[in-house]
Q: What sequence folds into this?
């Protein structure tokens, strides 16, 4: 909670104003505000001011995967990318299926203090899909877990998924499903289509995602529970979501930046930097993802930030771990795929990167409107910047970005968490 | 030509050039008591096989030796791979040892492409160059197999352009099928794939060939039919109900072989399961080119090594 004067910022890309922050809360907004003595000044230089981004899907790898990322390095990457809250997925080692592990991740996030780290709890013990984990204990722990997922694995057993949804509804928490019928994707390496057929890569059919989403929407409808669908990748799934929402099912959905931009055409080099689960699909799918995000059938952008140390990617395709970095390139990819073609304006960007994610997760102090009395939790964006992505120059410990060498528009110039500047001019603050 | 990774890297001229060189090498060795050409003397050729193979590995070794190269065979078991050494480190080690050419067979599709990338990046620093030959990468490609099949077709049919070639069997899992479809299309042949729908890849309708479920209807118009082995493991994947039903629907039985025109040839990359995809009598008939394919394989592989290590012929 800090004091700050932000000058010459344009909320949602509209008219430039100054914002005075006291104790982490915006007290005054207006043109040419006086600078009280001793208050730090952040000159936005005409940048677009948005509510700080909230990522419902991040892998921080700690505990157990620290060679790829830690809570600290992941927090630095988040701050660099304009994120003020991240939801850390539980596929760690040990799995985050008990209060002990989620409290550890929560405490580490607090200690680093650059971004609000919200641990996601596992739905099933060990992510094995057999026995429900202690959702209630995790929800009531100091980590205050609001979202549960077996991400990486699908909660496959329909009975268990139904019970988890029913149980979750009483706790007021969300079950987030990694939708993949594993029996249809045994040995799968790439989107099942003509590219994979030519490359000799076993296919991951879109139906493996679509059928689980359809099933889960029906189960959520019956349980009156909230369902969140992770990383939608197929246009077929969009159709299922549209129908479910029309029926009043409480389902929300996310799309990753890479599924807005990249297709399986990238696979011909066999470079595993492009290997991800769910896989990159076709141009028709990316087009459908963009339209669905603009329309709101897909609610949010979730990065599925998945860092991997070099030894996990510098291999033959089949041996590489799936996953791509995302926190530091998300905003630019959203601008490139959604703002530049006119599918979203800056208020739309605020909605998909901040407001809707905070709403889905039930975060009271993030994704708020920009106004007096609201938390000073912001991302400042230079819409005219152009930059070249270099994995080795990113804050993340790992370098596995599929956008390596690409020139992307827009850059986050500062990130503010309750009045405290966590990142400024590309430098993450200590 | 730096590497041979995929038949799609060869245009018609390059592919024909390789086949012509193979013919010339075959002629050069004819009648010689000492079957050796000095062309690749002092060159080091290493075969690195992560999958079992007799046919292909021996064929490459003989090809290298007949060209006077120093050949070394490495198989994954018994090497440092068992100690957890990565594919990349193994390749760079062989390159550092002084290999001019590494011939690799690996169960992962794209393995040869990745190897070529690593040795090329390494070459930027060391200045020495290693050529990679793909001897089979997962279910992706087996370029020298397609080349020797094309050489055999040229011999027996007098040419490839305009000829109708049928490929029958487990296309989904076959690197031989992929390499053949794309090379034969480049060389101007008409290819038809015949298989149960479960053994055809999603997206095959966009390949440069036709697809048909009816072998009996296709056979009378073919100049050549290439039979693919069906692996025993596929029985458990619900790809077809039983070996018997597969053989009845897609096996080249004696009756079926009679549907072929008189001049047509029967091919098989081997190893074959007699009685499953091909009847013993058909495999041993005059129409069968199975053994000719093997012997053409040596000359074709000599030609590949020649083009990679000694440059194109004038």
A:
């Amino acid at each position: 909670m800090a004091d700050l004067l932000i000058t010459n910022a344009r909320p949602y890309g509209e008219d430039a104003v100054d914002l005075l922050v006291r104790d982490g809360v915006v007290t005054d907004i207006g043109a040419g505000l006086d600078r009280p003595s001793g208050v730090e000044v952040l000159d936005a230089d005409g940048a677009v001011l948005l509510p700080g981004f909230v990522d419902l899907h991040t892998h921080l790898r700690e505990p157990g995967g620290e060679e790829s990322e830690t809570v600290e390095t992941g927090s630095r990457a988040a701050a660099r990318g304009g994120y003020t809250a991240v939801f850390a997925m539980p596929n760690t080692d040990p799995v985050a299926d008990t209060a002990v592990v989620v409290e550890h991740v929560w405490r580490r996030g607090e200690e680093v203090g650059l971004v609000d780290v919200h641990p996601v709890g596992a739905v099933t013990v060990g992510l094995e899909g057999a026995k429900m984990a202690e959702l209630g204990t995790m929800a009531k722990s100091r980590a205050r877990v609001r979202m549960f997922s077996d991400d990486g694995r699908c909660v496959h057993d329909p009975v268990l998924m139904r019970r988890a949804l029913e149980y979750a509804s009483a706790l007021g928490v969300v079950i987030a499903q990694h939708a993949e019928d594993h029996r249809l994707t045994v040995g799968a390496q790439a989107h099942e289509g003509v590219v994979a057929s030519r490359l000799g890569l076993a296919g991951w059919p879109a139906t493996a995602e679509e059928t689980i989403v359809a099933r889960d929407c029906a189960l959520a409808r019956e349980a009156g529970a909230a369902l969140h669908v992770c990383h939608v990748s197929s246009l077929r799934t969009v159709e299922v979501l549209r129908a479910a929402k029309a029926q009043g099912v409480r389902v929300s959905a996310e799309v990753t930046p890479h599924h807005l931009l990249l297709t399986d055409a990238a696979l011909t080099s066999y470079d595993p930097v492009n290997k991800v689960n769910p896989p990159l699909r076709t141009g028709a799918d990316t087009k459908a993802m963009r339209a669905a995000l603009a329309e709101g059938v897909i609610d949010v952008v979730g990065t599925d930030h998945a860092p991997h140390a070099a030894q996990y990617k510098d291999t033959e395709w089949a041996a590489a771990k799936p996953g791509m970095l995302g926190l530091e390139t998300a905003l630019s990819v959203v601008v490139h795929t959604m703002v530049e073609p006119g599918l979203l304006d800056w208020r739309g960007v605020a909605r998909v990167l901040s407001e809707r994610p905070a709403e889905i997760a039930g975060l009271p102090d993030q994704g708020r409107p920009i106004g007096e009395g609201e938390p000073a939790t912001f991302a400042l964006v230079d819409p005219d910047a152009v930059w070249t992505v270099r994995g080795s120059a990113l804050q993340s410990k790992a370098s596995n970005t599929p956008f390596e060498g690409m020139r992307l528009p827009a850059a986050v110039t500062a990130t503010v968490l309750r009045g405290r500047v966590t990142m400024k001019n590309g430098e993450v603050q200590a | 030509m730096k590497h041979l990774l995929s038949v799609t890297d060869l245009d018609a001229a390059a592919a024909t050039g390789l086949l012509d060189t193979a013919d010339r090498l075959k002629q050069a060795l004819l009648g010689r008591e000492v079957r050796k050409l000095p062309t690749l003397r002092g060159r080091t050729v290493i075969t690195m096989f992560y999958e079992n193979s007799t046919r292909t590995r021996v064929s490459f070794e003989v090809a290298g030796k007949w060209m006077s190269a120093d050949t070394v065979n490495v198989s994954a078991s018994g090497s440092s791979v068992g100690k957890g050494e990565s594919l990349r480190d193994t390749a760079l080690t062989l390159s550092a040892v002084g290999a001019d050419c590494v011939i690799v067979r690996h169960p992962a599709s794209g393995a040869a492409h990745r190897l070529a990338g690593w040795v090329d990046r390494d070459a930027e620093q060391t200045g020495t160059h290693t050529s990679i030959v793909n001897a089979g990468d997962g279910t992706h490609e087996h370029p020298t197999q397609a080349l020797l099949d094309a050489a055999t077709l040229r011999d027996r049919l007098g040419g490839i352009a305009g000829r109708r070639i049928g490929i029958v069997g487990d296309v989904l899992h076959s690197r031989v099928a992929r390499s053949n479809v794309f090379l034969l299309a480049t060389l101007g042949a008409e290819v038809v794939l015949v298989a149960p729908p479960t053994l055809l890849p999603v997206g095959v309708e966009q390949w440069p060939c036709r697809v048909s479920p009816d072998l009996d209807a296709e056979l009378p118009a073919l100049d050549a039919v290439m039979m693919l082995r069906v692996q025993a493991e596929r029985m458990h994947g619900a790809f077809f109900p039983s070996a018997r039903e597969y053989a009845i629907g897609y096996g080249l039985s004696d009756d079926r072989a009679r549907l072929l025109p008189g001049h047509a040839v029967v091919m098989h990359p081997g190893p074959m399961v007699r009685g499953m995809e091909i009847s013993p009598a058909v495999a041993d008939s005059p129409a069968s080119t199975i053994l000719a394919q093997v012997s053409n394989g040596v000359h074709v592989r000599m030609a590949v090594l020649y083009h990679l290590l000694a440059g194109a012929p004038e």
Summary: Residues 257 and 330 of chain A are 6 Å apart (CA to CA). Chain A has a mean pLDDT of 97.
